[in-house]
Amino acid sequence: MTITDVRVRKVEREGKMKAVASITIDGVFVVHDIKIIEGDRGLFIAMPSKQAQDGTYRDIAHPITTETREMIQNMVISKYNEALAEE
């Protein structure tokens, strides 16, 4: 699996969510609405989720392995930092 494109849209409001990203996988599959969030230990990503009937949130799409999650997170946060540097 190769991430062939990462697009980041910064959020202009105050709060912990800093941006929303979309990734393209192998040039043929897109995952939208990956949130970039400022946590107590720095930036991290939250995969797209949907609220269940019981009020909890469940990921709609997510990596199965830790290595894949880390790869996606590193690429998305790197692209976010590039966008900040361009300002």
Can you characterise this structure?
With 87 residues, the protein is α+β, with helices and mostly antiparallel strands. Helices cover 24% and strands 45% of the residues. It has one helix and six strands, in the order E-E-E-E-E-E-H. The chain has a four-stranded antiparallel β-sheet with strand order 1-2-3-4, with helices on one face. Strands 5-6 form a two-stranded antiparallel ribbon. The protein is globular.
Share of residues in strands: 35-45%
Total strand segments? 6
N to C succession of SSEs: EEEEEEH
> Biggest sheet, in brief?
4 strands, antiparallel
The helix/strand class is alpha+beta
Provide the fold topology:
Elements: E1 3-10, E2 17-25, E3 29-39, E4 42-46, E5 49-51, E6 57-59, H1 66-86
Antiparallel strand pairs: 1-2, 2-3, 3-4, 5-6
